[in-house]
Amino acid sequence: MQHDWLTQDQLVLASNNAGKIAELQQIFSTLNLPIQVVPQKQFEIPDAVEDGLSFIENAILKARHAAQLSGKPALADDSGLCVPILNGAPGIYSARYAGEHGNDALNNQKLLDDLKPYRSGTPTIQGYFVCVLALVRHQDDPLPLVYQGIWQGEILEQPRGSAGFGYDPLFWLPELGKSSAELDKAEKNKISHRGQAMQLFKQSLI
């Protein structure tokens, strides 16, 4: 019964974030699922109120919201960047860290500014991306399916690269010698937090 949602005609992606949707749809295209995956925008579903205190809570809130308004199973992604030296900020507030939802330039600049006091004593500042995927079969689903990915890296002192979105230009991968924004889509999807969560999702279907 865990995957009875696959018998439905459509699965709603509970997001209006173009970057997330593009990455998720690209990964979904490799799974050959017997269900059409469509963004919630096609159902004119507005963003949910994200008033949870964790990535898991917000992912489930968004999935239930989309399932309620569409009448279909829904998959939501809640993700963000956590910096331990900032007590986990920006965390669940990553998309609106600087006060304006979805303004990547302002969010990146605020992160750089907030880290300046720590740079002299801490040459390397650790950070990690988190992605939680939550799938509900209907709005009142008592057992959402949850998949989590974590991507470790470092926070740069200035942006590098022009690909990706969000904090990708500041997220340094020392083992690759590149920022996340310098990876091509296929390379990023193999190792990113979202890619990891989607791999767990894929494995659950086997």
Automatic annotation (TrEMBL):
Which residues of this protein are catalytic? 78
- Name any one GO molecular function: XTP diphosphatase activity
The positions annotated for binding substrate are: 15-20, 79, 165-168, 188, 193-194
Question: What is the organism of origin for this protein?
Answer: Alkanindiges hydrocarboniclasticus
State how it assembles. Answer: Homodimer.
GO-annotated biological processes: nucleotide metabolic process; purine nucleoside triphosphate catabolic process
Which enzyme class?
Answer: hydrolase
Required co-factors: Mg(2+)
Positions that bind Mg(2+): 78
Identify the GO cellular component terms for this protein: cytosol
Q: Supply the alphabetized keyword list.
A: Hydrolase, Magnesium, Metal-binding, Nucleotide metabolism, Nucleotide-binding
Family per similarity comment:
Belongs to the HAM1 NTPase family.
Pfam families for the chain: Ham1p_like
Domain of life, per UniProt, equals Bacteria
- Please write the reaction equations for the catalytic activity of this protein: ITP + H2O = IMP + diphosphate + H(+); XTP + H2O = XMP + diphosphate + H(+); dITP + H2O = dIMP + diphosphate + H(+)
Q: What does this protein do?
A: Pyrophosphatase that catalyzes the hydrolysis of nucleoside triphosphates to their monophosphate derivatives, with a high preference for the non-canonical purine nucleotides XTP (xanthosine triphosphate), dITP (deoxyinosine triphosphate) and ITP. Seems to function as a house-cleaning enzyme that removes non-canonical purine nucleotides from the nucleotide pool, thus preventing their incorporation into DNA/RNA and avoiding chromosomal lesions.
Signal peptide boundaries = none
Output this protein's name: dITP/XTP pyrophosphatase
Q: What is its EC number?
A: 3.6.1.66
On cofactor binding, the record's note says: Binds 1 Mg(2+) ion per subunit.
